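MODEL INPUT / OUTPUT PAIR
PAIR INDEX: 1
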Amino acid sequence: MLSDVRYVPTAGALLYHYCSPSTLHAILSNSTLRLSDIREMNDSMEMDWGLEALDRLIEGHAGLPQVLAEKVASVRADVKFDSMCVATCFSTKWDVLSQWRAYADNGSGFAVGFDPECLTDLPINLLEVCYSVDRQDQLIDEFLDSIEADYSRLGDADYDPGPLYEVATEEHPDDATDSDRLIARQVSKIARKVHHATYDLASFKSPAFEEESEVRLVHILKVDREAGDVVSLFSSSAEEDAWVSGRDASLGFRMKGSVPVCCLDIPLPAGAIKEIVIGPRANVSELAIRRMLSTVGHRDVTIRRSLASYR
């Protein structure tokens, strides 16, 4: 994985999801949050911004062995065929006019303030978006240095790329030596390390979006390359009880024009919603919002209005 892209909550900080009135209703009524295929979001360069930077830096990375560069390129190319990144977006800021315009029904919607500590208990990653091209290049270079160091130690029985990247048992030829098996397993782990890192690139965006101050909640789905099925790897019955007890995430599709977009509705932990901000053009009373919150089971939620003068 890339270093320094994980969002680390500070005490009392909330993450704000700007949304339309209908989306607010769905979140509150179902106590779920919808994640969608990141490649079908509004930014036409989603994922590609970071992947293109990776391609560029692989070519220019001094000392990266050709065979390793080819392995990274191969894993990077396969990512979109054997897995899918679904995500939803937050801002660290509660009252940004551009966010109201773009994501909250032109100011008639809401911003839902979530407790990030509650979200980190789920099988997701929170990524803090990086807008600096120099910093993006630095993070990729550091990652390439790390896998170059991994590669230099192939065959070393005392070296393991790490338990985080455990993979399924490899099949080997009958005449494979113990050394062959060790190297094959280490290479597989490095490949998984690259696979994880490619999805960390979802945290890279153009500097043009910096005002959004975005944090992304991402989850990886498995894709069956032969059948084409999309599958979530976690369930509430899993040994670790990955989702909220007794509830599973719901996998499905919605239509964006003529394009089917994969989406995952994830159950929210109790107490995850801490605040509702009423948009600058939303003609609704705080009392009406309070009644809805209480009736559908969300209590101790702060309500306030945007300070933006927008009509």
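PAIR INDEX: 2
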Amino acid sequence: MNTTAPQIILGTMDFGTRVAPEQAFAILDAFVAGGGGWLDTANCYSFWADPSGVGGAGERVIGAWLRARPCARDAVRIATKVRQNPLVAHSWPKSAEGLSADAVRVGAQESLGRLGVDHVDMLTPATAAERTGVSLDTLRYYEREGLIGPIRRAAGGRREYTDDDVFWIGLVTCFRDAGLGIADLRGFVAVLRAEHPAQDRVAFPREHRAELERRVTALRRAMEVRDGKIAYYS
């Protein structure tokens, strides 16, 4: 599925509350039959219209539809969000789950359970940060430097990350952790994206590997000296 071309996205905010499940199923069937591919939901949909006072109804309806249509998962991509679901019924915004690491982790896992899937296809910035282990500021920095992206934007301007974006974030973070400078990394990313010949793609990581090997050797020597001191003074 093309994730960069303009797409029609089906909003599912009222599924399971104002829109009954059978009507939601008919809408989903028609959407897919018409060539639609993206479903937008959130773990908080729609607590304000649900007698329970908490969210999850929309995701449960989508999950039920996916179970009733065994081939549907291959036909659609799912975007969900966390942050606003009340932890205490009828107590929003006071009990909104927020964006702590634990809240994102728990919220994402609960969403997967309601949807009945092992992954979602588009992540909010907070979920992408949690999944990749970097901060929101780092994600924005990577984008400004041209190391990832361009990141898709929702209608309101919010960044939405795909699995492909998560792959690039992981790649960039790995090389940054290994001591690679921004200028060199920007050049390497440009080579990969431009689909240069294989020899060009291999040359850079091979050179960087040699530098890492020199650093590893130096670190091992330092460890040996440290261990000697520990043994001497013990």
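PAIR 2 NOTE: The first helix runs from residue 21 to 33.
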